Amino acid sequence: MHMQETVLKVDNLHVNFYTNQRCNKALRGISFELKKGRTLCMVGESGCGKSVTANAIMQLLPDLSRIEEGSITYWKEGEKISLGELKKNGPEIRALRGEEIAMIFQDPMTALNPVFSVGFQMNEMLMNHSSMSKKEATKKSISLLTDMGVPAPEQRVFEYPHQYSGGMRQRAMIAMAMACEPKVLIADEPTTALDVTIQAQIFELMNTLKREKDMAMMLITHDMGVVAEMADDVAVMYMGLIIESGTATQVLGNPTHPYTSALLESIPMLGKGKNQKLEPIKGTTPDPYNRPPGCQFAPRCKHADEKCHTHMPPEFFTKEAHMVRCFKYEELNHER
Amino acid sequence: MKDKRELLLRVSGLETYFPVRKGVFKRTVGHVRAVDGVDLEVYRGETLGIVGESGCGKTTLGKSILQLYRPTAGSVEYTFADGKKDLMKLNNKDLDEARRKLQIVFQDPYSSLNPAFTIFGSFVDPLNKFGIRKKADQQKLVGDLLEAVNLPRDYMTRYPNEFSGGQRQRIGIARALSVDPELIVCDEAVSALDVSIQAQVLKLLKQLQVERNLTYLFITHDLSVVEYVSDRIAVMYLGKVVELATTDELFKNTLHPYTCALLSAIPIADITKRRKRIPLQGDVPSPVNPPSGCPFHPRCPSCREKCKVDKPALTAYQIGGEEHFVSCHFAMEFMKEKK
User: Fold this and answer.
1) Residues A240-261: pLDDT tens digits?
2) Phi/psi-derived region of residue A286, left when phi > 0, alpha when psi is between -120 and 50, beta in every other case
3) Domains by residue range for chain B, with CATH
4) CA distance A106 to chain B (A)
5) Which residues of A touch B225 (CB under 8 A)?
6) Position B185 pLDDT exceeds 80
7) Of B54, B257, B295, which is closest to residue A199 (Cα–Cα)?
8) Interface predicted TM-score (ipTM) over 0.85
9) Partner residue facing A196 (CB), from B195, B265, B283
10) Are the Cβ atoms of A225 and B247 closer than 8 angstroms?
11) Hey, are the CB atoms on A266 and B277 less than 8 Å from each other?
């Protein structure tokens, strides 16, 4: 096993959103690390704060929100940069975006500008981060598109996003993200809008890139299947907290938090046939403005008792790196 | 067993084309062949799953069966209490009457309920139309239906914005049930829901099917969901059914190369089962200008000369006493290879 070098560290991050004199505590203290050559999968249902985490790292949070507490540290060749303290849209963060940390968004149609050709948008970014001329940039764009498996790149580079199919647009997005060979790639549901056969192509591509360039990757998804395919490490989020994290084998092989196991029991699994048992999780996710006082999952949890309803469980560690936020982790954990 | 099955719906040679218009005079320059010759039989009490990638025509097929789109050619025969009728030949008045038996649950629970109406208001129109006109009766019926989908009775006075996605989808299902239908087309009914909610709705659909002897046409792109709900599965590609078999049979003896690739592309939430994928090249071709011969040949890993010119027909094979329909020239060879 090669040395695992941490490139990005998020520590006790709190983010609040302010609307109509109310405050949504979207992130309530999450901590994780991204390591070189490894994929961290963030998994959770809609509204649990997955995308907020990604946007917080990139300093792309909307105006009416702010990082209340905690830090995001990025190591740029040994030099420590605290991303959370940089000015939103300031020159420092703009230099990092794209060059050091790149992001792929969920919907490639809204992420690409429809009135400029794909090549123009790629050139813009290349010329911004390096001293390339327009000619060189176009050449580089073509070679990037070739790498991503876009057919007829010499022609495609001058075409507009609407002339691309969904899978190809996402490839163009990845090409753009990879243009400056970033150290960290954040992918926010990159394949949710795509078909499974195209999804398989994109994942193949992302895995190759990860291996070749030794990138750190953070993949945000709601699909447990994707997690099992792609992840080295997994973090399960619920209501703005990471409730379980560890390596993929630990979390998926031995889910300890009741939410993780309930989530795995509630999805139909291919190959198990018509008579497989589905255990739906009862109730719905709580209103973010009216959160339960104790463990966030307690109202829906079948193991919950008095203490769970009144106290927030801290982070418990079973083995190294397998973290669970549950008072009952000892009786629910079967490893060892 | 097989003889007991009662034929409810027979779709034969169904084609739905949408014209592509261009130029100043909006001349028709071509057609999008959304559904291009589909034959299906649906039996009472079963769930027929229809799967395929986006743009393969599965939603259009569902809507064409209900005559929400008027198909271009073919026939849709439905067995009513007073004999078989071709839905395509009915006039609008008779069609309204026929729709009592055929209902649809839409994909997006947010846009399928009118935000200006209370839940009760959304139910009133179909009830008025189908003969329940007294308000007291209506309220009783709507209350019963809401209870049937595990929602409290008094929710009928609320507005759609007060409900979550899963609740709205259950209201959509209750509304489809309000006219006491026999066949429900579920068009991606659980795709927009979160996983924990998805299981609730799937369980509800299964339970209602047993209680009310419903027949489902379950349209989805998610093969794991379709495996869980369906008795039989039809796989569509570019407006055509390429493989049709019972669920067990389809997963055990997958014959069509497209189905094989589709199955291998699905990520499974089990870390011990990381498998080898069959990668597909390129994208789905445009339905305006489908490829010659077998529609799948440009992406098929085992494409041969014959596939490029000859269109394969959907042929029935008998495997272990069960019928298995495949449209591939070399299905028999693939079967032998597997054995």
Assistant:
1) 999 999 999 899 988 999 999 9
2) beta
3) 1-53+73-230 (3.40.50.300), 233-339 (no CATH)
4) 15
5) 268
6) yes
7) B54
8) no
9) B265
10) no
11) no
